[in-house]
Amino acid sequence: MNFSENILIYSSIFVWLLPPVRQYKNFLFRYFLILGIADILVLFFNKILLTPFPDLYITISFISFVALQKNEYLKKRKVVFIYLSIIIIVLSFIRIEKYPYLISIAFLHLMIIFRILYLFVMVVAEKQAINFFYLALAFYEFTVLLKFFNYLFPLNVDARTYFYITTIFELLVGVFFTTFREDSPKLVYKLK
């Protein structure tokens, strides 16, 4: 990697450490905390332990999905989540081709998108308001999903250009989530 790529990567890591601070004491705090430490963990595992990224990303993706669940729901479905956790952990240690990993990660991010859209719809139904925070979050997750699809079905795009565009976009999204919270009035549009 060249100097500008390293600057971009480390800037992204720094920027994504800020949203958990902003989202503290918010329902989505755990989710943003995982996003904040994910890049640090991936960098540590890739550079120090030389572990390929699918091994870790499948676990991070699953934990991100779990972090979007309410505590009451997790308690009710404790056995299901324990079994799923065991399957994910076993999957992350089995050495198979990268495509099953990427498909599993893509599936988990698709489930995250559905969960975020569910939360969006619940806010619309309960509060009669559109909360654009959830739409921004779903859009961010959609771009993450597109990244994994790019690994599965490579685009005819220069890899370096694609890296710069997606990383700069993620930096901007990190700044957005550092600026706004789920309950920010500027992001809520009342329907009635």
Please write out the topology.
Elements: H1 3-15, H2 18-22, H3 29-47, H4 53-67, H5 71-76, H6 78-93, H7 98-127, E1 129-131, H8 132-152, H9 159-179, E2 188-190
Antiparallel strand pairs: 1-2
Helix pairs in contact: 1-3, 1-9, 3-4, 4-6, 4-7, 7-8, 8-9
Key traits:
192 residues; mainly alpha; 9 helices; 76% helix
Brief write-up:
By secondary structure, the chain is mainly α. The protein is built from nine helices and two strands, in the order H-H-H-H-H-H-H-E-H-H-E. It has helices at 3-15, 18-22, 29-47, 53-67, 71-76, 78-93, 98-127, 132-152, 159-179; strands at residues 129-131, 188-190.
What does this structure look like?
By secondary structure, this protein is mainly alpha-helical. It has one domain. Helices cover 76% and strands 3% of the residues. The protein starts with a helix and ends with a strand. The model has no long low-confidence stretch (mean pLDDT 83).
